[in-house]
Structure formats: structure tokens, C-alpha cells
Amino acid sequence: MNFRDFTEIRESIKTGNLTLPELAHHYISNIDETNNDINAVVNYDRDEIIRQAESIQKKIEDDSAGRLAGMAIGIKDVICEKNKKATCASAILEDFESTYDATVIERLKKEGALLLGRLNMDEFAMGSSNENSIYGPAKNPHDPDKVPGGSSGGSAAAVAAEYCTAALGSDTGGSIRQPASYCGVVGLKPTYGRVSRHGLVAFASSFDCIGPLANSVADAATILEVLAGYDDHDNTSSSRAVPDYREAVSDPTSNIKIGVPEEYFGKGLDKEIRDGIQEQLKDLENEGAELVPIHLPHMKYGIAAYYILATAEASSNLARYDGIRYGHRADIDEVEQELHQEKMAIQEQMELATGDKKMELSKELETTDSALVRLYKKSRTEGFGQEVKRRIMLGTYVLSAGYYDAYYAKAQKVRRLIKQDFTQAFDDVDVIVSPTAPTTAFDIGSKMDDPVQMYLNDVYTISANLAGICGINLPAGKHSNGLPYGLQFMADTFEEEKLLNAARLVEQLHE
Length: 511
Description:
Layout (H helix, E strand, L loop, with lengths): L5 H9 L5 H19 L2 E3 L2 H16 L10 E5 L26 H8 L3 E6 L33 H8 L5 E6 L5 H7 L2 E4 L19 E6 L2 H11 L17 H6 L6 E5 L9 H16 L3 E5 L7 H16 L14 H21 L2 H12 L4 H13 L2 H14 L4 H22 L5 E5 L15 H5 L6 H6 L2 E9 L5 E8 L4 H14 L2
Helix pairs in contact: 2-3, 5-6, 10-14, 10-15, 11-12, 11-13
GO molecular function: ATP binding; glutaminyl-tRNA synthase (glutamine-hydrolyzing) activity; transferase activity
Enzyme class: ligase
Family: Belongs to the amidase family. GatA subfamily.
């Protein structure tokens, strides 16, 4: 069985050559055979999957099924599903079960999608390699010694390994597009506000987007059409009408204007990736596209601005995990015992001290943290991983008195300048092209001790999140090292039709 495209799957089911339960068994078999090595799927229920498949199959047969009937979709573990664990790959939410469905889950169910299971990720979506996870690192199906990218690494790996037809991921600074590049699949980040964030556990609320990863542009377009649209539960969601995204890929227009920014093809980009993308741009030009050199002067500040603003928002959003209402809680008896022992030790010292030393110890006793404060600290220390702690600390620092204006306020101004760069560029072009990542997938463990180098993997993707525009990764070819690499298109806000049109043109070059 070799069905990777939803159109093929749906046609085979309609003609009776395939049933959805058979397809479900195929995906389950693939997971059973290789997921111990790839570690993309972290939680799934075989019996429930088969029950879903049988129910949807009946609807297909009586012609009452929705647009996604026959599509098996994996869900990143940061998106809430009712009565399912939503751990965000973090110890602090290790036993948390969602009490409701995210809006995107409701819309998938309504249209007959088969929800296949929960997928690995970087903890709280903070990472570029899927190594920051309580489940252990996800691995790249093309080479298990390499990372799949992050933070939606499990989603990209699951699609590439044929554990599902498609997957949902989230993209805060490139977390759909970068792993899609590393794993050789399509990954779409919609315009901010195009898809509801209700039920997406927040990392950075002014950046986060939910989007699809799939094996074809048409599949990504089909899923986006279902997900998009206004939601009463999310005031940042747009009320704009949802276009027919599938129409945009059915007969793409070739005479488009493609902006080629000099900033994205310079130092730091792998030569083979640069040459491969430029060759495909020439092919598009031969088919009728116009290549327009453009300049995005403020892109060089993108990484710095992003990691100031995103960590500030993370610091605020993650303050809710205090071990009191839900999530991991430290042992209160241990906390109280430690506090008691500490106070007793200070009191013993006070009995032997005199003068200033005694007054100093008295003040120390008075200012000792209460059991409640210690419970907060211990719960968060135990619950959060190293990268999440790093970002909380950075975010708290840039928001603190004396540093807010120097860092956070200045980064917001830079964000505005980056947005203006794109707005001006889109006056002259339909889409902007760039590499998706500067290299192919790197070795597991090779960058864990160098966070700056890890962050630079997002150098080409974060600008779309800063500007709130849409972007997509297209598989662009294989490197001489045998690993896939990607090409990225970006389009203006709510111009997903132009984005998908351009993406389909590249896809046709490989058919």
C-alpha cells in the first residue's frame, strides 16, 4: 500500500479498492514497526482509531462524509483534544488531560478526519530540533541519527514516515516550515489570525499559528480550507471569508512575480541548497515567472528581535504553571520539611550569635520564603526543562524594570520595521522566495550545548512570524548527503491563494 496523497486515498475508497479501516491498520502497522526508532508518535489508541475509521467509512458509503473523510491526521501534543493528554512534551503537564477540543480539532472532526494520535515536539514548542521533550528526541526518518527539526518535529517525521496522511503543527518562529524542510514534506504557516488558536497551548501569543504538514500542496490547501475562519473563542481570529484554496492549486498561474531578497542568499547558506533553489527559480522563470530582486533591510535584526519578544511572551504565558490548579506539583511535605529544617538551623545560629550578626540572622529568618512560594519554585524547577527555563529567564529579564525600554520596546519597533519591509515588497511582487533552513538536518546532540547556533536555524523563517504573513515550505530536492532540503515562499497577509499557487508551480517541477 503506497498512498501518500489524499486525492488518491479518497478515490481508492470511493471505488472500493480501499477501506478506511484498512488504511488505519496500515498506518498503525507502520507505527508499530518503526516508531520505536523514530519516536514521532507519543500516544495513540489502536481500538479508538479503528472505531473512528469504521464510523467514517459508513458515512463515506452513504455519501454523508465531510471533506476530510479518508484523511488520517496526527496532532501535535500542544493542541488540546478532549479527554486526551496534552502534555506539551513537558513534565509540568505530564498527567494533564484536556477537558475540551481545540477549535481546529472540532473542525477536523466535523469534516470526517481520522485523528490518529499525539505527536512528539519540543517542550512547549520551544526548540528547533525536537530534542527538548520528556518523550526523548524525535528522529528524522531519512536518517535516524539526524534531528527532524522543531518544534513540530514529530509532526514532520510522522508524515515523512507514513504514520499518517497529514499532521497539524504549530509555528511560532518556523516550527512547521523548518522541520518540514528537514523531513522533506510540505509545511504551511497561515497568516496570523487565519486559523483559530483556541485550544493551542500558548508559547508566544502574538506569533503562534496552527497549520498543516502534508505530502502535497493540494492536501495542505484542503486542510487549511477546513481550519480557516473566524472563531468566537479567539478574538484574534479573522472574520474574512475563507477562499477556495483547493482552486488555487488546481490550475496554477505561472506568470507570477517572485521577489528574490539578497539578504536570504548570502553568507551561512549551504552552497548546494543555494544552487538548487536558484536552478528551480530559473525553471520557474522559463515557465513565465518574473524574478524581481528586492531588498529587506531590517531582516538582519530578525533573530534578535524575535528572541526578545517571543521569550517575553513565553515568560508571561508560562507563569500560569504554578503547581496549584493543575499540572505538576512538588511534594508539599518535602517543601515544608525543608523549610522547617532551614528555620531551625537559622534559629540555632541566632542563639549563638550576638550584635549585628544576630540582627542579620533575624532578618534572614523574617524574609525566608513561605511554604507556598517554595512550592511554586520547586514545582516549576522540577517541571520545566532546560530550554524552557532559559527562555522564561530571558523573557523575564527583558521585561524587567530598567531593561524594558532597552530591549522589549526596541524589539517591538524593529518588528514594525520588518513588517514595513514586507508591505513595501509586496507592492511589487506576489511572493517572496528564500531557503527554509540554511542547512539540511544536523546530528542529534550536536547543537544542544550552543543555543545561539540552535536559534540560527530559524534565520529564514522567523520574519514571517514577526510580520504576521503566511509562509510555506516545499521539498526542493536532495542534498549530496542524501537529506532533503526545502524552499520557502512567503506571501502577504491573507494571500494564501498566491502562496499555494506558487508552491504548486514548484511541486510541478518535481512531477
